[in-house]
Amino acid sequence: MRILSWNVHRATAGSAAWDYLLVLPDVALLQEAGSASAPSTPGSRSMTKDLDDRAAAASRKWSLYVLCGISLIGVTVRAQTAGIPPMRQLPGRAAIAQDTLASVAEVRALTGNRVLVNDAAARRLLLFDSTLTHVTVVADSTLVTRRAYGSEGGGLLGYRDDSSLFVDPVALSMLVVDPGGSLTRTLAPPRPDDAGDLSLPAAKAAFDGVEHLVYRDAHARCTQGRGCQATLARPAPPSGDPQSVVPPYARRDSAAILRADMKTSTVDTVGFIGVPFQIPAKFVANADGSTSIVRFLAVPLPIQDDWAVMSDGTVAIVRGLDYHIDWVALDGSRTSTPRIPHEWRRLSDMDKEAVVDSMRRVADSVSALQAHVDSMARASGRAPASAGKIVVEFPEASELPDYLPFLVSGAVSADAEDHLWIRQNGGARLSGPAPPAVYDVVDRRGLLIDRVQLPASLALAGFGPGVIYLTSREGTGVVLLRFRIR
Known about the structure:
The chain is built from eight helices and 29 strands. The protein is α+β, with helices and mostly antiparallel strands. α3 (25-35) packs across α4. The termini are far apart. 31% of the residues are buried.
C-alpha cells in the first residue's frame, strides 16, 4: 500500500486535479494506510489490520478514481489553454542608441523618455536623452568625475521621483543622482554589509516610495550555517528519508526578501523565496596522498521562485511550483491570487540527455582551461591555482523533472503600469540557439492579460511609461534600444 499510494501521489501532485482527488476519502485512506506500513508494535497491530481491511476495500474503487482523475486533468488542461491570450510582437522600435556600451546592468527611466544607464563592465553611469543619441557621463572611473564610480561595478535603483541611487560596494555608500544627472549627496546603506548586496543585479533592489529599500539577501539560508536541510518543492513521501528519494530538482533552498528602513536602519524580513539548492564541494584524500575536490554542479532545470516590487511597495512573489502569486503589502498583510494558466512542456528522455550532455561539455571546457592555466604556472615556477584534482559529478538524466519549469532566475519584472512581466523558460538550454524571449504579462489581480514575444536576440533591460528598453549584443559590445509596448 505504501508504494501504491506514493506512486499515485507522484502521478497527481503536479496537476490541478490533485487538489480535488486529495479530498476524496479513499485517497486519504490509501495515504493513511501507506504511512502505517512501518514496523508496528504489538499494541498497534489491531489498528494496522483495520487500516489494511479498509484500504483493501478502497483499492477496489481505485480504478474509478483514476478514471475520474484523468477526466479532471483533461478538463483542467483545456480550461487553462483557453485562458491563455494569444502571443503578440512589440509594435516597433522607437529609438536606438548610437553608442555601443560594454554592458547594461540596469536602466532607470526618467521623465521625457530620458534614461539613466549603469554600464557596470566599463564602470560608467550614463544619462541618455530622449532620442538615445546624446550621452552625458554622470560617473566614471576617470578624474573628470573625480572617479565617482568606484573601483568595482556598482548598482543603480530608483529613488524619490526622478532621483536615483547609485550603490558603491567598495565605499559602502549610496550616491544620490538628481534628475539632471548630478551627484548631490551621499547616503549610508541600512547596514554596511548591505552595500555589496544592493549592488548586485540579483538583489533586485528597489525603493518602495516610503523610505524603505527592498532587496533580496544575497545568501541562501542553507549557505549561512551548518546542518541546514533543504526544503522540498513537493510533499515528502509518506515514510523514509525524503532527501534520499526526492530527486535533486525538487530540493530547494530559500533566500530572504528584506525591507530596510532608511531612517532607522532597521531591517525586516518580508518573506522567503525558493532558490536552487547548492550541494557544497567536498575534499577527498586519495590513496597516493593527493587531494581531490569533488564539485557537484547545480541541478539543471530547478524549481524556483522570483519576485518584484510594485509602485506602492507591495512585494509580488511568483511561485515556481504551481505558478501563483503571493502579494505582501506594506503593512505586512498577505494575499494570494489563483494559479496562472500555462502550457506545460513535457521533457522527453532525449531532452533530458541533451541537458546533461551540455553540462558535461561546459565542465570539460572549464577543466581544460584550468589545466592549461596550471601548466603555465608550473612552467614559470609558480604554484598552480587549483588546490588539487577537480572531480565533477553530474546528475542523471532520470533525475530531471518530467516537465520544463516555467520560471528561471531573474525572470520577474514590474513595468511602469504595475504589470508583472514574467519571462517564460523557453528551453534554450535544451538544444540549438536561444529562442526569442516570451513574457507573460500579469496584472494586480493575478490575471494573465497579455503575452509578448521580444524580437530575436534581444533581452529585457527595463521599463518606462509605455515603453520597454531592450539590449542587443553587437560584437563585444551592447546596444540599447527602446520599443513601444503597444
